[in-house]
């Protein structure tokens, strides 16, 4: 079901939208089992798989407890996650936000185990993507209850209207980039399991560390409009964007 005019207006105003329940209890249970199995089998120390399985270091000490475990393009590893990127419920909402011609940019499984996972710095997703127009949105799905204690997403409302802001490379040894934001303006979005939120690629957001006894497993799908082009300066990047999977409409 596509979004109401009120929901679209809220997204356009704030740059993010807490959507509510997306998945059934049975769907969450199945996906969580598959998610946990994939992480149990993942080898984060194998340099040959660094582009797929990696620890996002959030602290220059390099301690594992301060990293976030990330697996990219999970849809290539499990058919249930592949089905999600084509799920009509997800694509209906996404079409309401970026239009009818949609491509899959990537997906990410993100795990902060209990007492594990550092703070991700303030950033815009487009600080990494470098897309113009910035017609890209992330669907972020909670596979367990995301509370105030176990690292919920935090957004700066309206920050997507600033355009692409300056990002700096993090400390040596991390792939993370960071920007500046007024922490006092942050809005925390807690997400019960099976619920989802959407956010614009230029909305400033971050997450705090997980120091709770509860894990925070989440699955994020990043979609772009077929009209998006790269402004990264890398001529190969536009070729890659052209070849992305079309999940609705045309490319």
Can you describe this structure?
With 251 residues, this protein is α+β, with helices and mostly antiparallel strands. The chain has helices spanning 5-14, 25-41, 79-85, 88-98, 126-129, 235-242; strands at residues 16-21, 53-57, 67-72, 102-112, 120-123, 131-132, 136-142, 153-155, 168-169, 177-178, 187-189, 195-200, 205-207, 216-225, 229-230, 246-248. Strands 1, 2, 3, 4, 7, 12, 14 and 16 form an eight-stranded antiparallel beta sheet that branches. Strands 5-13-8-11 form a four-stranded antiparallel beta sheet, with no helix packed on it. The protein has a two-stranded antiparallel ribbon with strand order 6-15. The longest helix is centred in the first third of the chain and has 17 residues, at 25-41. It is globular. The model has no long low-confidence stretch (mean pLDDT 89).
Gyration radius over CA = 17 Å
Overall residue-averaged pLDDT value: 89
- As a percent range, the share of helical residues equals 10-25%
Structural class: alpha+beta
**Uncertain spans:** none
Shape: globular
The total count of helices amounts to 6
Strand content: 25-35%
How far is it from the N-terminal to the C-terminal residue, by CA?
A: 22 Å
- Biggest sheet statistics: 8 strands, antiparallel
Element order: H for helix, E for strand: HEHEEHHEEHEEEEEEEEEEHE
Tally the beta strands: 16
């Amino acid at each position: 079901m596509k979004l109401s005019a009120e929901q679209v207006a809220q997204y356009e105003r704030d740059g993010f939208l807490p959507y509510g329940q997306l998945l059934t209890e049975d769907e969450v249970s199945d996906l969580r089992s598959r998610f946990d199995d994939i992480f149990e089998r993942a080898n984060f120390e194998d340099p040959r798989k660094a582009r797929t399985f990696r620890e996002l270091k959030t602290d220059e000490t390099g301690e594992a407890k301060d990293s976030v475990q990330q697996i990219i393009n999970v849809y290539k590893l499990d058919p249930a996650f592949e089905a999600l990127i084509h799920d009509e419920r997800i694509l209906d909402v996404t079409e309401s936000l970026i239009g009818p011609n949609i491509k899959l940019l990537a997906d990410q499984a993100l795990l902060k185990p209990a007492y594990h996972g550092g703070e991700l710095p303030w950033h815009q997703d487009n600080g990494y993507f470098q897309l113009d127009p910035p017609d890209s949105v992330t669907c972020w799905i909670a596979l367990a209850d995301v509370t105030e204690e176990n690292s919920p997403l935090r957004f700066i409302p309206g920050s997507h209207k600033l355009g692409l802001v300056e990002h700096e490379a993090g400390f040596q040894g991390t792939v993370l980039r960071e920007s500046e934001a007024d922490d006092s303006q942050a809005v925390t979005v807690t997400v019960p399991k099976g619920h989802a939120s959407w956010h614009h690629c230029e909305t400033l957001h971050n997450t705090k560390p997980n120091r709770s006894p509860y894990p925070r497993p989440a699955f994020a799908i990043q979609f772009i409009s077929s009209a998006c082009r790269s402004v990264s300066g890398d001529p190969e990047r536009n070729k890659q964007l052209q070849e992305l999977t079309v999940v609705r409409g045309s490319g």
